[in-house]
DNA sequence: CCAAAAGTGTTACCTTTACACCCATGG
DNA sequence: CCATGGGTGTAAAGGTAACACTTTTGG
């Protein structure tokens, strides 16, 4: 009984990465075929898995992430449950699930997670490709398998709204980063240009953003100051701001 | 197959109500007994249900709410899934579930919803008691069944954090309310006293909070102006504020 | 006339916004 | 020496926070 895949519950992960220009998401090839037909169509899906009977949901999502990226202890949060009885209803999707899981599949409830990774720490594109995984810029995402477009969209909106309340942007940047990189990150996630003088003033007031004795190298312009984010200091000094919309 | 209860997936609802003084939550008697033993213990649980095979998750939660309160079209949002393999592991919990559902139960993942209702529109306390349901003030909640204390706590935190971003407080107030009632509501949810002159100034600027040609009656003090919340106007005039914590 | 909550304004401070030019580096 | 992005300050406007007294009703 234990260590069996549970055919009723799955996890799917929206894994975000940032290359200093745009947000990307990690997607997996899905080859549509059945036991006796050749590949009839390819498309892309979110990384995911059925959950083992004795496995915690968070553990299951961590496992997917680890297998794919090689990383552990990564920012990972469940954000929504997709459980419409008809969400896996078309024949191709059902066949694919039944074939790949070797289990009788009817209704599958999926727990959607979003994850933020530092692209430079993840397996290289070559290694990812061996798992059929690719970084796709958000603007280039086409029709995905199952209801994964809907899940991706919801994950993006969660990221947007959480970014306003928590300093999670740093999960997407290398340990050392420039203010410009941070600003661009906020701009692409929020979808708004920001004034960089005002942005820098904001930064300057935050004691948990610490300028290093280091600058960029090999750039064809004045090299920028590097900073790091001190998470511990953030949580020590953070003050609840009781601003509410009403 | 259709219209069968799915023994793997349930919904649980944290239903909040406000009586102008404190937040309350709607809880249900659970009588612990088995086929051949009498009632051995009573405790309280969140209202919930297993999900039918052909039933949407939101529909399932609405069904629970309707059965209990008599209300439809109520504010109801999923906020977390609880799916630890050991969350229903003690014998009493397992026996109860198996006995009441008449299904073989092992692991159950539950989708937790929080709901905001106007206490004056819900079934009266008498009617509720016929379903074994009671409004319990948050401060008076003791040990609940299963992991329901944890679910309740998470629901409360979700309510707190959403209240800062969305005007959902009005779901807990009658259609006509006073500024003092609104302020008390915010105070008990946020857990902070607010300055009432400043609070009123804030209100005065909001065009979607509309003073009525009506005042309180039968109060032993100067009767207060009544207001209503115009949801449509709110969504028409709302402007995204791009404040972010960083 | 008393108790109880309603309602009202001002000031100091802080935050946000808008806006333009010189600097340091690589090629 | 040119192209590229790095880095800087000020002023006006708006929002937030702190604070005490008069008004209106029921009993």
Could you please describe the fold and organization of this structure?
Two copies of one chain form a homodimer. Chain A is α+β, with helices and mostly antiparallel strands and 246 residues long. The first copy, chain A, is built from seven helices and nine strands, in the order ββββαβαβαβαααββα. The longest helix of chain A is centred in the middle third of the chain and has 16 residues. Chain A is elongated. At the A-B interface, strand 1 and strand 5 of A face strand 1 and strand 5 of B. The structure holds a DNA duplex (27 and 27 nucleotides).
Topology:
2 copies of one chain form a homodimer.
Chain A: E1 5-18, E2 23-34, E3 37-45, E4 48-52, H1 57-69, E5 75-82, H2 91-101, E6 109-116, H3 125-130, E7 133-137, H4 148-163, H5 179-190, H6 196-205, E8 209-215, E9 225-229, H7 231-237
Parallel strand pairs in A: 1-6
Antiparallel strand pairs in A: 1-2, 1-4, 2-3, 2-7, 5-6, 8-9
Chain A binds a DNA duplex (27 and 27 nucleotides) through helix 6.
